[in-house]
Design goal:
- By secondary structure, the protein is of the alpha+beta class.
- The protein folds into four domains: 1-30, no CATH class; 34-124, no CATH class; 136-239; 246-344, no CATH class.
- It has helices spanning 22-28, 62-72, 128-134, 153-172, 197-211; strands spanning 6-7, 14-15, 32-34, 37-42, 49-51, 54-56, 74-76, 80-91, 96-107, 110-124, 140-146, 180-185, 190-194, 214-225, 228-239, 246-250, 253-261, 264-269, 275-279, 285-289, 294-302, 305-309, 316-320, 332-338, 341-344.
- A hairpin with a 2-residue loop joins strand 17 and strand 18 (264-269).
Length: 346
Amino acid sequence: MSIQDCFCPKCGKLTKDEGLCNNCRIDKTPWFTCDRRIKSTHCPSCGAIKQVNTWSDTNLERTKLAPDLAKAAVHFHPMVRKPAITVSVEDNTLNRSTATMALKGLFYDTSVEGTCKVEIVWNKEQCDRCNRISGSYYEGIVQVRAEGRLLSTFELQMSAAIAQQVEDTLQAGGERLSFISDMNESREGLDITVGSQHIGTLISQGIIAQQGGRFTTHPKLVGEKNGRQLYRITYSVRLPRFQKQDIVVSKGHYLEVTRVESNHLKVLDLTEGTPRSVREEDIVHLIGNIRNAVSALVAFADGKTIGILDPETCQTKEYRRLKWHDVKAGQQVLVLRDGDQLIIVG
């Protein structure tokens, strides 16, 4: 002991530094505090959780959420190192749970332990998205139609799938109000009711990117809120007159549509097997689509001639062997019917 030694002014023990020793500091300073009650607000319809004034989607059940909520109620002193919390939760009622926590840590280089209890209040409140959906709120309708014809089943299914994919992507990115509230098929086409103008635009762009065509917007003023004008927009999506894999006739040639561009069609000549471009007005008529083709048996293949068994009449008909299509007797080919004639499409 020397005159330069430091002593704790409370208990008189030697200390490394001036001031209270570690034990007296621990006795004087609370090393943690614990909130008595914590509230969790969730949507009973979709399970979203409200944090302050923001809703977030989650797939976690109450048993998974409770420990993290309880830990958030514990506040350690800044000098606590290596804090550890063990949580056990007991449900008291449907809306109340009690979390008991065992706490450990190093406080001023001394091991400390403690316990605390927190009451968790489970509050129910309809979220912003479900509130809008239940109130039939919407900001636009995407109307999918086709020029001069009805939508095919494939186009209906494709458009619906694109819309659903756009919604899933936006929801995963945090745009909770970009939702689809309704999707109805009618004789004319498909109507998609959307909760935001952003999702309406993306769905329209996605449909024409995959299936061609164009879309226009038609806004309608429906009111005003906080000095801001509110509009509902009709997105008029028009698919082209012809679609991919359509078989059409132009100047005596059967053609498969491979791409639609403005007033031109990119096609494959089914006789020559060569690609080319034709004007839409040069199309005489539509035979059908390859998706609706049926299988037919090749009865014989002799040089430049093949015999195909008509699946309806069961009669064998002779056709010129196509340059792009190598086929042997006994194999199946895909055909479409043009009157009494069979068109080989695959």
